[in-house]
């Protein structure tokens, strides 16, 4: 199996399918829920930038640099966000789960936990990864807390890692889950995903 082979991952309440321009209208609606593009420390497209962002991710997929997914909520059968496998290092069996965003109304609902459980299960149990990375902006406290709730550990902070569109310098927090931790992390995520609200 190639690491960036198109696939659909299914779990309770959520489906991850290859991103496509047919998801455009749902994703425009999703960005408007919470005006996510206005958060200066994220890279969520504005409504007018969704088509270009879908195309950018698909171009990277064609170059075998990214596997982009639309996050489909089964309750509505609509795309509510995006996520990807990226920074693939097949030789060293490592991958990053990143460029993830969800509409505000489904944040903290368990949907993200299900998505991460699907992606991590595929990474560790199908791709046989030795480590999976997750990265976020130092100032994205909500994302950092969410990554830590998954059971990922902070590897370090890349200072002045990137220049943001607004010209500020991004410090990137790098987290990972390693293969030896996966059974415990999986048990934790499975519990989180299946416990009553």
Question: Can you walk me through this structure?
Answer:
- This protein is α+β, with helices and mostly antiparallel strands and 197 residues long.
- It has 5 helices and 8 strands, in the order E-E-H-H-E-E-E-H-E-H-E-E-H.
- An 8-stranded mixed β-sheet has the order 1-2-3-4-5-6-8-7, with helices on both faces.
- A hairpin with a 4-residue loop joins strand 3 and strand 4.
- Helix 3 runs antiparallel to helix 5.
- The longest helix is centred in the middle third of the chain and has 16 residues.
Task: Describe this protein with a few key phrases.
5 helices; 197 residues; eight-stranded mixed beta sheet
| Strand portion | 25-35%
Average pLDDT works out at 91
Rg, Å, rounded:
16 Å
Alpha plus pi helix count: 5
Q: Tell me the series of helices and strands, N- to C-terminal.
A: EEHHEEEHEHEEH
Biggest sheet layout: 8 strands, mixed
Quickly give the structural class: alpha+beta
Rough outline: globular
Strand order of the largest sheet: 1-2-3-4-5-6-8-7
How many E strands?
A: 8
Q: Could you estimate the helical fraction of the residues in percent?
A: 25-40%
The first-to-last residue Cα distance is 37 Å
Query: What are the low-pLDDT stretches, counting only 5+ consecutive residues below 50?
Result: none
